[in-house]
Automatic annotation (TrEMBL):
One term under GO cellular component: DNA polymerase III complex
Entry's family note: Belongs to the DNA polymerase HolA subunit family.
Organism placement in taxonomy: Bacteria, Pseudomonadati, Pseudomonadota, Alphaproteobacteria, Rhodobacterales
Name of the featured protein: DNA-directed DNA polymerase
Organism: Pseudooceanicola nitratireducens
Keywords assigned: DNA replication, DNA-directed DNA polymerase, Nucleotidyltransferase, Transferase
Keyword Nucleotide-binding: no
Length: 341
C-alpha cells in the first residue's frame, strides 16, 4: 500500500508491528535515513539492538547471499518483542534477491524495513510494496519538515513550550539548511533549553542557528542601513586590521541590501516579505531587518543597489587606482547619507 506524505509522517511515529515490511525511498539519503531511524526505533524500542531484535544488512549482501535475508526474517529471537530486519541501499538490481524472502513472509516473522534511492514507477521492488495488502511504501520528497513535524520532533525530545514566533523561525530555518544540519540544530536547541522551563523564543533560535556571516560585518551593515555614518570609520579600521577584504564587504553589502529590497518590495507588504527571504532572518535581527526595510522603502533601496553595483564594478576594474578599502568606505558613507534623505 502507498502511504501519502501526510500519512507517512504519522506512520513512521507509530508503525504497525504486524506488517510484512516498509519500503522508504527517495532522492535525499539524509531524509530517508532520519525517517527510517524513527520507524525502526518505534518498532523495536530503545533496547532493540542490544536485545538482538534488529538485524542490519545492505542490498549488496542480500544479492550475494539471498538466504541471509530469509534466515534473518525467520530467526527466533531470544528476547521477546517485535523484530526488524533492516536492508539499506537497496536498488532495483537487488529485487530478485529480496522479493522471494518477502513473498515467503508469515505472521510472527520479523518485519522488513528497506531503504532505497529513487525508484521508477515500474520498479518491481516499489510495485511489490505498493500493491501488497500487508506492506507499505513511502516516498520521501525533498520538502522541508512542516511545522507539525518540527513540533512533534521537539516534543519527543521533551521540549514542548514553544512560542509561535520561535516555531515560525524554525520553519524558516528548515527551508534554508539540509535535514541533517536541521536535526543537529534541534538537538542543540534541546540542550540549550535543558533545565529551562520558559518558552522558546526567537532569541533562542538566533542563538543556536548556524552562523552565516561574521558578527562585525553584520554590525557594519546595520550601521550603514541605519544611517550611523559616524560609526563607519572606527569599525572599518577594526575590519581592516583583521584582514577583511574589500570584496567580502561589498558582497555582504549587496546581499544585505538585496534582502532589504526583497522585504520592502514584496507585493504582500514588508511583514509578509520578511517571511519569504532566503536565507531566513531570526530573532531580534528579524525585527531589525524589517525596520530597516520599512525605513528605506523600495525606491531608495533600488538606488542603494545601484550604488553598490557601481562600487563592485570599480573594485574589479583593471583601471582602478584608488585603494580598494577606501573605495568601499566612501561607498558606505554615501549609502548612510542616502538613508537620511
Amino acid at each position: 500500500m502507498k502511504l501519502s506524505p501526510r500519512d507517512a509522517t504519522s506512520y513512521f511515529a507509530r508503525p504497525d508491528p504486524d506488517k510484512t515490511g516498509l519500503l522508504i525511498y527517495g532522492a535525499d539519503g539524509m531524509r530517508i535515513a532520519l525517517k527510517r531511524q524513527e520507524a525502526v526505533a518505534a518498532l523495536v524500542g530503545p533496547n532493540g539492538e542490544e536485545e538482538m531484535r534488529l538485524t542490519r544488512m545492505n542490498g549488496a549482501e542480500v544479492r550475494r547471499d539471498p538466504a541471509m535475508l530469509t534466515d534473518a526474517i525467520k530467526a527466533v529471537g531470544f528476547f521477546p518483542g517485535p523484530r526488524v530486519v533492516f536492508v539499506e541501499d537497496a536498488t532495483e538490481a537487488h529485487a530478485p534477491a529480496i522479493l522471494p524472502a518477502l513473498q515467503d513472509w508469515q505472521a510472527g516473522d520479523a518485519q522488513v524495513v528497506i531503504t532505497a534511492g529513487q525508484l521508477k514507477p515500474t520498479s518491481k521492488l516499489r510495485k511489490f510494496f505498493e500493491t501488497h495488502v500487508n506492506a507499505y511504501a513511502a516516498a520521501i520528497y525533498d520538502n522541508p519538515p512542516t511545522r507539525g513535524e518540527i513540533e512533534a520532533e521537539l516534543k519527543r525530545s521533551g521540549l514542548q513550550n514553544l512560542s509561535q514566533e520561535a516555531l515560525r523561525d524554525l520553519s524558516a530555518l528548515a527551508n534554508a539548511i539540509d535535514p541533517g544540519d536541521f536535526r543537529q540544530t534541534l538537538e542543540k536547541l534541546v540542550l540549550y533549553k535543558f533545565g529551562d522551563d520558559t518558552a522558546v523564543l526567537p532569541e533562542d533560535i538566533a542563538a543556536i542557528a548556524p552562523a552565516s556571516t561574521e558578527a562585525e560585518i553584520d554590525d557594519l551593515l546595520d550601521i550603514v542601513a541605519e544611517a550611523k555614518s559616524d560609526q563607519i570609520g572606527p569599525l572599518m579600521q577594526r575590519l581592516r586590521a583583521q584582514g577583511t577584504q574589500p570584496v567580502t564587504l561589498c558582497i555582504g553589502l549587496m546581499r544585505h541590501f538585496r534582502t532589504l529590497y526583497a522585504v520592502a518590495a514584496h507585493p504582500g507588504g514588508s511583514n509578509e516579505g520578511i517571511n519569504k527571504v532566503r536565507p531566513p532572518v531570526f530573532g531580534p535581527r528579524r525585527d531589525k531587518v524589517l525596520r530597516q526595510a520599512q525605513g528605506w522603502g523600495a525606491q531608495k533601496l533600488q538606488a542603494a543597489l545601484t550604488e553598490i553595483t557601481q562600487t563592485d564594478l570599480a573594485l574589479r576594474s583593471a583601471a582602478q587606482t584608488a585603494p580598494a578599502m577606501a573605495l568601499v568606505e566612501r561607498s558606505l558613507i554615501r549609502l548612510a547619507m542616502m538613508a537620511r534623505r
